[in-house]
User: Fold this.
Amino acid sequence: MIGYLGVDVGSVSTNLVVIDEKTNVVAYIYRRTMGEPIRAVQEGLRELKELLPLGIEIGGAGTTGSARYLSGVIVGADVVKNEITAHAVAASHIVPDVRTVLEIGGQDSKIIILREGVAVDFAMNTVCAAGTGSFLDHQAERIGIPIEEFGAYALKSQAPAQIAGRCTVFAESDMIHKQQMGYHAEDIIYGLCQSLVRNYLNNIAKGKELLSPIVFQGGVAANLGIKKAFEEALETRVIIPKYFNVMGAIGAALLAKERVENKPETSFKGFSTSDIDFKTSSFYCKGCSNNCEILKIEVGKEVLARWGGRCGKWEIE
Amino acid sequence: MKVGVPRALLYYKYFPLWETFFSELGAEVVLSSPTNKRILNLGTEAAENEVCLPVKIFYGHVISLKDKVDALFIPRIVSVEGGAYTCPKFLGLPDMIRALDVDLPQIISPTFNLKLGLREFYRSVYELGGFFTKNLFKIVMAFQKGLNKLDSFENLLHDGHLLNEALAGRFFPAPKGRLRIGVVGHPYNIFDQYISMNLIERLQKKGIKVLTAEMVEEEVVDKIVTGLQKKLFWTYEKDVVGAVFHWLDAKSVDGIIYVLSFACGPDSLIQILIEHEAKQQGFSVPIMPIVIDEHSGEAGLVTRLEAFVDMMSRKVGSEKS
Assistant:
């Protein structure tokens, strides 16, 4: 059996997926990046290999996410794609006529607007993480309710509390105030979900036309309270795909499958790449007054890749 | 006499004219180097905080050039056609530079205002030429030569050559790919490789044929914009709107990228106008705005461009199959 590998290395999580020729998900891994993308990919591959049925052969590999070039070098990717394309491809594969993709991850959130299968607009949060998973994580900890049970609590709410969502600091003082006033935990939790959605719609989706079908993916889509808050705010149904938290990786795998159709053989280096010692280092180029910071990846004495320059001087083909 | 010309803002529109005019009058034209990190930093430190990135960069060019020349050429270009103005920042440019707290050489800043008619315009030309010679005939001849030079430069653009190639006089064959993207916005944003982070080269590397607003002739633009609900009174923005709707009408692009600078007043209005008008007229060509400022990271641009191009190729691919 032939499988296709998709790897999505983001700031918070590293996800790996193998799909089969019919694009069904065979196995997937969702793990923390912990600031070490190389290690996360190598260990992820090791874990993934254990989950795969015997006799499966990787026929193509794709990478995405903010560490897509780095992980592409490590796994030997046939295709390296930006996360917007990967998420859009995965969403439109599962819901072919999708027109809006809401994606909220650990530290970033984005919106992708599609029309006739084309991403015509997208936006990502910039410096503020107030509308993302880590914000919810932090507040769950404050209330003392595990994040996994957050959604169930939120759904029990009868009269949601009004919580300021523009900033974690304000939200926290608001929540303490509401607790001291005697509000139920579920009302505070759902109020928090509503404030996060309000924040997302005001900042990231500002000025965009959100048309159905709407797909909601990324780690935060696990939270049913957020889904409900989105549905109330948008007055329409929001679809959560089955593998919502690894959609980027699924997109990368789909793109890899597509790419190898026009390629004699895959560049995938095999699962043994987990045992190779990759070294990274950086230096400032003194070639001109731009002083670009160049990063390089080496194995032993061989330089695998260099990037970061404004001119093409340091690139390796 | 060494005349310094900052490689910024209207340099991208009129340099062939300026260079010819000054050289014909015996001056040596000194151009600042292409924008780099140092120039950007000089500019952002010196400039008012509220101005847009290209104006900040203009400051940087002025400062990098000031000790190498006898005079700086910073014209006050108010209007270049009847009934329309340029950006308000261009109107105040010489004053903004004079207000800088640094030692500056002489600043040559004639006012060009075609709204006051040709007579006033030529009076400014004579005044400018007067810095170099008292010979009126020589000034007229130099200006005529400059105009001819500007004409042939603009003809190159109308023939489909990119502005940077036409300025340098070096031409490269256009990529042979199927996709065509119109890149609009101010030439001083798009063709300053530092500001635009090599936007055009990045597209060309992906095999995309790039069209820009300068390639669309003035008559075509004027015809298109008369069909709009309201008259556009900024010349350079009018060119952008004209080009966009010319391409949409002629179906000559698969997508449009609008490069805006953060804090640009005209851009912020024109972008909305284009999106609104395109929607009203029922066009479905994707238009992607890219907003740049001095904090813009390359990663954000690369991700957006990749996504835009990918999605268009996927669309064209699916229509074909």
Notes: DSSP finds nine helices and 13 strands in chain A. Chain A has two domains: 2-88+248-276, 97-240. The mean pLDDT of chain A is 89. Residues 185-203 of chain A form the longest helix (19 residues).
